[in-house]
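Hi there,

I know you've been waiting on this one. I reran it after we fixed the sequence typo, so this is the corrected version. Both the input and the resulting structure follow.
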Amino acid sequence: MTSDLGMLCTSFPVLEQCLCNRLQGNEIVLEWVAFSTTKGGLKLSLNTLEQFEHEVGERKTHDPFITLTLAWCSLLHGSQKRALTTPEHPQSKRSAALIASPGLLLCSASFSPSATPSQKYSQRGGRGEVVSTFGAIQGTRWAGRKGQTNGVQLELLEGSEDSLINNYKYMFQRLRDVRNVLTEKIEELGEELRTNFNIEEFSPVSLPAQDSVTVLGQVCCDSNGKLNSQSVLLEAGPDQGGRQVPVDLSELRDYSLFPGQVVVMEGMNTSGRKFVASKLFEGVPLPFYSTPIKQEMDMDIPDEQLMVMVACGPYTPSDGLTFDPLVDLINVIARDRPDVCILLGPFVDSKHEQIEKSLVTETFDAIFSRCVGSIVEGTKGVGCRLVFVPSQRDVHHHFIYPQPPFILPDLSKDDTKRVTLVPDPCTLLIDGVTFGLTSTDILFHMGAEEISCASGSDRFSRILKHMLTQRNYYPLYPPVEEVNMDYEKFQGYGQMPLSPDVLIVPSELRFFIKDVIGCVCVNPGRLTKGQVGGTYGRLLIQRSSPSIDGKRVSPCVAGQVVKI
């Protein structure tokens, strides 16, 4: 017994168990003595140490799986040598199961000095509670196609040639290039509005006129402050004089405006110094995706539903770099077996206190690789396609918008087939259904700048409608300070090629699922909110043809936002 206690006190894996279970050295010795005595004087070995940790873990937490994997994580990663096995001493099935466990790569003890699990997260209530619903929920079975991922077609709608699939050089744009991009946006949207509303021509915005005229321009603010009803300017494109003129909104009964919005207004400008608007023409959204006839005939299972799960980081509580929420999400994926799982960053959050203060013992890239590796390994037998979307809050990745996709050079050939790396933003085609994806919090950014005088509409619906009618993923100009916009790349990769069937817009604001002019818009919330658990989303998708009367039927059958 004395030799066992000496081994126990100097054993590196036992030190890791002390750290993960929050035990002092004398406490774990007493725990071992009690355990060994009740088992008839067991000798200290790897197998008995496993049994010992299991019993300690059961008493320390309600989730022994997480504690067990956390404790053994550093043991497995502490030695870079491969465990030796022989026919006489084969690897136990239990050890093999531990190595394949998704929690192993996520032990905070090996990359953070604070390995204490979040008390508020572990004590959260309402686990699995549905907090928002959409569509036909009664009798809905939330499950995938039982691992038939080979039948799921998933690709960037623009195709690899026209999509942002590689890194690019930035910080080289010139002011005149930015101006050219904005001018083209005004001209393109203006032409669509002119055609849709049968407008003969646009008048120069600053030209005095006694009669009512129609003008085209971009909304901006007369100062660096927040836009309000008294500070609205309309800036015309070069074809309409390129001037700025103040706008009087007093005669408009309903309006919703934000800086950067391209609008058409009807009104009078008798003095040439102020335009009095009497009518505001709303933008026109793009058409939805229509499946080619040949592809529609080739569909094997046109009526089978597809389950898509959506989650957005951060994946750790704010009081520590413990990835318990991510481990819980992996367990949900393993239970529900969705066909596609869309995971949006941040994965290594630049706003996390320990990241900001550099209180980590591994590189940010190493933490990210471990995080993604745990997701890939933990979902290997589930039959789930994984989509990874970067975030500008990912400290290890390029801090630019549009943002190129992650690079995962260590993925195996089999894993590469089921992992899709996409940029932010992008339009994804999943079995004939289009998904618009962005991890940038455009709802929060536009919500802080929008002004409105509208009855019977909520702020989220107005902002989402602006995105769809302005036809891009970030219509706000100028962008907020934390968004580093490359406008030349934005012109090519930040536009909506069509109106998506489903628009994923995660935000710090409250979660929701709602239909906005035919597009199902989803804010799944974030997987963690400070020190407590957050939410994720799940959708049931079904390819559908137009109904008998010719009206479009949304392919999103049902949706929910669920607490982790």
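Quick highlight: The chain has 16 helices and 22 strands.

Best,
R. S.
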